[in-house]
């Protein structure tokens, strides 16, 4: 790569057409300008100018190097302008969270995306361990985790919590639901469903709950947006965080049954410690906080 200092000196020399004016503009001596020119010519391996009295003309190689110098200045100015502008509505922002929270969050981001055509929002639904790894590697600007990672390179803010819900068809009876009632209905399972069952059902039915692997399985869905669909049609029950229920398009077909003992999952907003956030990342952070606030 060409030495950037020598290239800048040569570009200025081409602009002024005079060694003395170049030295004055760059706060250098005239011999210093000549030295930079010689070093650049040695690096290129060709002469860049042909002297003509007190002036000079550019060789073909000199014209090419001058064009490169101007191009680099343009690129650097564009970069400086972009950094100084820090446009909230331009550039990329990468967010990672659970599938249920991603469904809940996306409608909060869409109005912003609609009015900002130069904005690129990457929202990734991924397991907690991958969110943590992506934050540490710099692949994600913001992540939503279920616990404070307590890591020296990360900072976390507690957003609140969302309830773990027992979801039944809307026409379910108002009488107390027993574990036998749930078994007769059948479980609509999903990748996190067994963990949720061990959490919520064991808490409320300690004498009857046999373990997630022994539940009467009515169906299995691995697409987060479709998990409540069979329940809304009267088929089975499921367990979801509140965000997964709120994001479902046919909420009228569901009812959240209030068990005697309730469980909540914490929500933590996590980012790299000490990082200066761009305007767009700060705005995205606010949208995450707004979405989390709707779940209380």
In a nutshell, what does this entry contain?
With 296 residues, this protein is an alpha/beta fold. The protein is built from eleven helices and eleven strands.
Structure commentary:
- With 296 residues, the chain is α/β, with parallel strands linked by helices.
- The chain folds into 3 domains: 4-85, Winged helix-like DNA-binding domain superfamily/Winged helix DNA-binding domain (Arc Repressor Mutant, subunit A, Orthogonal Bundle); 90-161 and 265-293, D-Maltodextrin-Binding Protein, domain 2 (3-Layer(aba) Sandwich), CATH 3.40.190.10; 163-263, D-Maltodextrin-Binding Protein, domain 2 (3-Layer(aba) Sandwich).
- 44% of the residues lie in helices and 23% in strands.
- The protein has 11 helices and 11 strands.
- The protein has helices at residues 4-16, 19-25, 30-44, 60-85, 99-115, 128-137, 179-185, 193-204, 229-232, 242-246, 279-293, and strands at 49-52, 55-58, 90-97, 118-125, 142-145, 154-169, 187-189, 217-220, 238-241, 254-257, 263-272.
- Strands 3, 4, 5, 6, 9, 10 and 11 form a 7-stranded mixed sheet that branches. It has a two-stranded antiparallel ribbon with strand order 1-2. A two-stranded parallel sheet has the order 7-8.
- Strand 7, helix 8 (193-204) and strand 8 (217-220) form a beta-alpha-beta unit.
- Helix 1 crosses helix 3 (30-44).
- It is rod-shaped and about 105 Å long.
- 28% of the residues are buried.
- Belongs to the LysR transcriptional regulatory family.
- InterPro entries: ArsR-like_HTH, LysR_HTH_N, LysR_subst-bd, WH-like_DNA-bd_sf, WH_DNA-bd_sf.
């Amino acid at each position: 790569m060409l030495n950037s200092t020598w290239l800048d000196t040569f570009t200025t020399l081409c602009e002024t057409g005079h060694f003395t004016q170049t030295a004055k503009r760059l706060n250098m001596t005239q011999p210093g300008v000549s030295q930079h020119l010689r070093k650049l010519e040695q690096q290129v391996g060709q002469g860049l100018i042909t002297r003509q009295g007190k002036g000079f003309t550019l060789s073909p190689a000199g014209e090419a190097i001058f064009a490169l110098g101007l191009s680099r200045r343009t690129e650097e100015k564009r970069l400086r302008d972009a950094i100084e502008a820090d446009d909230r509505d331009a550039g990329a922002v990468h967010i990672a969270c659970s599938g249920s929270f991603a469904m809940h969050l996306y409608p909060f981001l869409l109005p912003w995306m609609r009015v900002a055509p130069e904005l690129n929002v990457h929202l990734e639904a991924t397991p907690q361990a991958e969110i943590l790894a992506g934050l540490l590697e710099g692949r994600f600007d913001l992540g939503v985790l279920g616990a404070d990672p307590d890591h020296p390179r990360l900072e976390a803010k507690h957003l609140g919590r969302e309830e773990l819900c027992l979801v039944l068809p809307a026409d379910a009876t108002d009488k107390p639901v027993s574990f036998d009632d749930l078994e007769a209905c059948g479980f609509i399972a999903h990748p996190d469903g067994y963990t949720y069952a061990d959490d919520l059902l064991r808490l409320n039915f300690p004498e009857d709950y046999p373990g997630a692997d022994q539940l009467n399985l009515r169906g299995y869905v691995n697409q987060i947006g479709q998990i409540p669909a069979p329940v809304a049609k009267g088929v089975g029950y499921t367990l979801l965080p509140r965000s997964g229920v709120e994001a479902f398009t046919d909420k009228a077909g569901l009812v959240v049954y209030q068990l005697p003992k309730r469980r909540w999952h914490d929500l933590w907003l996590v980012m790299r410690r000490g990082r200066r956030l761009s305007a767009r990342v700060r705005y995205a952070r606010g949208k995450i906080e707004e979405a989390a606030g709707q779940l209380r």
